[in-house]
Automatic annotation (TrEMBL):
<dbReference type="Pfam" id="PF09420">
    <property type="entry name" value="Nop16"/>
</dbReference>
<dbReference type="GO" id="GO:0042273">
    <property type="term" value="P:ribosomal large subunit biogenesis"/>
</dbReference>
<comment type="similarity">
    <text>Belongs to the NOP16 family.</text>
</comment>
<dbReference type="InterPro" id="IPR019002">
    <property type="entry name" value="Ribosome_biogenesis_Nop16"/>
</dbReference>
<keyword id="KW-0539">Nucleus</keyword>
<dbReference type="GO" id="GO:0005730">
    <property type="term" value="C:nucleolus"/>
</dbReference>
<protein>
    <recommendedName>
        <fullName>Nucleolar protein 16</fullName>
    </recommendedName>
</protein>
Length: 181
């Protein structure tokens, strides 16, 4: 079978092309990705990153904002004037920091949930086998061939995520056993 034309031809590398400069200029043009919506809404694309953050009252470099204090031999060298330090910029958009602090103070909502399939699997195993994990491992509904330790771990996860539901389920099993006897 003949070879395809052009495949065996050697590709030439252009030594005169500066790829670093092309990459750098494309990266410089891109706007910064801002995750926080409060900052994104207050951002002014005509200003630099340092100017934008200074207007919002945020620090560009945390090491410069809160420097590590050096031990001074003479403590009287500090100068105080009008409560403002020279070179410190005025915060024009304080609402950004206030909104971020408010958002951070809200309690975090628990998002721990288990899949419905896992909940049904655990309830089935407990209902049919109780605390016998070796018997659970041999059950025909054990599709993923979990070992007894893996099944025990899944049951413990269910207990931790839904303690009240687990407690009610165990009580309902006890009442069913009482009625059967």
């Amino acid at each position: 079978m003949p070879k395809a034309k052009g495949k065996s031809r050697r590709h030439k590398y252009s030594y005169n092309l500066n790829r670093k400069r092309l990459y750098r200029s494309a990266r410089r043009r891109a706007a910064p990705r801002i995750a926080c919506s409060h900052i994104r809404h207050a951002w002014d694309p005509r200003k630099s990153v340092a100017e934008n953050l200074a207007e919002m009252g945020l620090a560009e470099d945390p090491n410069k904002a809160l420097p590590i204090p050096k031990k001074l031999l003479v403590s009287g060298m500090e100068t105080e004037s009008d409560g403002q330090q020279p070179g410190k910029k005025v915060v024009r958009k304080p609402y950004v920091v206030n909104e971020m602090e408010l958002e951070a103070s809200l309690p975090e909502k628990k998002s721990n949930t288990l899949s419905r399939d896992l909940i049904d699997y655990v309830r089935y195993m407990i209902q049919n086998h109780g605390e016998n994990y070796k018997e659970m491992a041999r059950d025909e509904k054990n599709y993923y061939q979990d070992t007894p330790k893996q099944i025990k771990r899944k049951i413990n996860v269910y207990k931790n995520f839904y303690p009240e539901e687990y407690k009610n389920f165990i009580e309902s099993l006890k009442t069913e056993k009482m009625e059967v006897q």
